[in-house]
Structures are given as structure tokens and as C-alpha cells.
Design goal:
0% strand, 244 residues
Length: 244
């Protein structure tokens, strides 16, 4: 796990713990807008940080394969369940139950983000274009409860007695789904079109052992040696011819 992964995991885990503290939950129970803001903070920031930071460790040791359909179902089941009037009314009266629902919501959000943020695991990972399509498909269902609350004329939740508060919460839910889509698509396309891949962290970079140069052929080594001197040809004295 490199420096940037550790930093992302630490920040995400810190925000998750702060988000589950009783004072924060008490504030979230005061208005529907704060309740939705708490969930959207988990969905769009906290869980992606945790998934990105834990990706290298989980990818090496657990290698969790999550299909895109499972991620989309996990996101929408947890999101729709958290907006049910019976669930909202129950968690507003019990802070421990509120914290438990938030943990389950984080699990569903993690399952959704994992196919996008996990490190490459062989050929099973999504391609960049498939990730964009995954985000587009996943962002459609959350707009339904968002629009339903934004244009509502009746109160759905007993603890919150303001129609304006309910409409603002719906707008926030709708806007967060679209913002996550636009932001995720921009990051994926930017990394796809980048001239070079993202440089690895110092901790992720394994020390490469330089390849040993191939052995030189025998004739190459002989070039550096001194050539042996050729023996001088033997000279035989010519016989003197008889004087004429």
C-alpha cells in the first residue's frame, strides 16, 4: 500500500468514524436535508476514499470479484431502503439504530464502488469505457427518489415537518447522483487520455534488478588482446654464383 493509498484510507476512515458519532447523528436527525447530506457524504466521498485506500491490500490478499450488476443492486437497495419512511422514522428515534443503518449503507456503497476503484486484477476488471457505462446506469435509479422528494407536495416523514426541507433534501439527493456521475466520468476519461500512466508510489515500486548484459562472444574479447606478432620469414643465403 503506497503513500496515497494510506492517506486516502486514513482520511476516509476518520470521516466515517466522525460521521457515526452521536453529536453528528443528532444533528442529522434535526432536518431531512442534514439526514440526506450525511448519506451523500458517505456515498460520494467517505466510501470511495476507503475503497481506493484499501484497494491494493484487498486486491492482493482477498481479490474480491464483484460483478457490475451486484454493485448497482447493492447501491440502489441500500439507497432506496435508507429513504423508506418506516426506516427514517425508526432511525430518528434510536441513534444506535441510526448508526447501524449508516454502516449497512456504507457496505452497499463499498460494493458499488469496488468494481471501479479496485486495482487491476488480471483480465476481470472493467475497462475505462465500461466504468463510464457502469456509472451512467447506476446513476439513473437514485434520481427517482430525489425527484420524488424534490417535487413532493406531501410530507413523507413524520419526524420532519417542513415540506421545504424535504424538497431541498430531494434536490441534494438528485444533484449528488449526477455529480458523482460527472466527477467519476471525468476522472476515468482523464486517466484514459493521459499521455502516461499514473506513476507508482515509492512503496509500490519494487526494486528492479538490472538485467545482466548478454555475454560477449569469444571473438569480441579477442579484439582487446594484443595480436600475436607473426614470425619473420626465414631467410636463406643465396649461393654465390661462380665468377665468370
Amino acid at each position: 500500500m503506497g503513500h496515497r493509498h494510506r492517506a486516502a484510507f486514513a482520511l476516509g476512515l476518520t470521516l466515517a468514524v466522525l460521521n457515526l458519532l452521536p453529536p453528528v447523528i443528532a444533528v442529522a436527525d434535526q432536518r431531512m436535508l442534514f439526514h440526506i447530506a450525511q448519506e451523500m457524504l458517505l456515498l460520494a466521498l467517505v466510501v470511495p476514499l476507503i475503497a481506493y485506500g484499501a484497494g491494493p491490500a484487498l486486491g492482493r490478499h482477498l481479490a474480491i470479484p464483484i460483478q457490475p450488476l451486484a454493485g448497482i443492486l447493492a447501491l440502489n437497495i441500500s439507497l432506496f431502503s435508507a429513504q423508506l419512511p418506516a426506516v427514517v422514522n425508526a432511525v430518528s428515534r434510536d441513534r444506535l439504530l441510526h448508526a447501524a443503518v449508516q454502516v449497512l449503507f456504507m457496505v452497499g456503497a463499498f460494493i458499488f464502488w469496488w468494481p471501479i476503484l479496485r486495482p487491476g486484477l488480471g483480465q476481470a476488471g472493467l475497462t475505462p469505457i465500461a466504468k463510464v457505462g457502469y456509472l451512467i446506469v447506476a446513476s439513473v435509479p437514485p434520481t427517482i427518489p430525489g425527484l420524488a422528494l424534490a417535487f413532493s407536495r406531501h410530507l413523507f416523514y413524520a419526524p420532519y415537518r417542513s415540506i421545504d426541507d424535504q424538497q431541498l433534501a430531494g434536490l441534494l439527493l438528485f444533484a449528488t447522483a449526477k455529480l458523482a456521475l460527472v466527477t467519476g466520468t471525468f476522472i476515468i476519461l482523464w486517466r484514459l487520455l493521459a499521455p502516461e500512466a499514473e506513476p507508482p508510489d515509492d512503496d509500490d515500486r519494487r526494486t528492479a534488478i538490472a538485467d545482466a548484459p548478454p555475454p560477449a562472444p569469444a571473438w569480441y574479447a579477442s579484439l582487446d588482446s594484443t595480436l600475436p606478432s607473426e614470425p619473420a620469414p626465414a631467410r636463406h643465403p643465396e649461393p654465390l654464383s661462380a665468377e665468370r
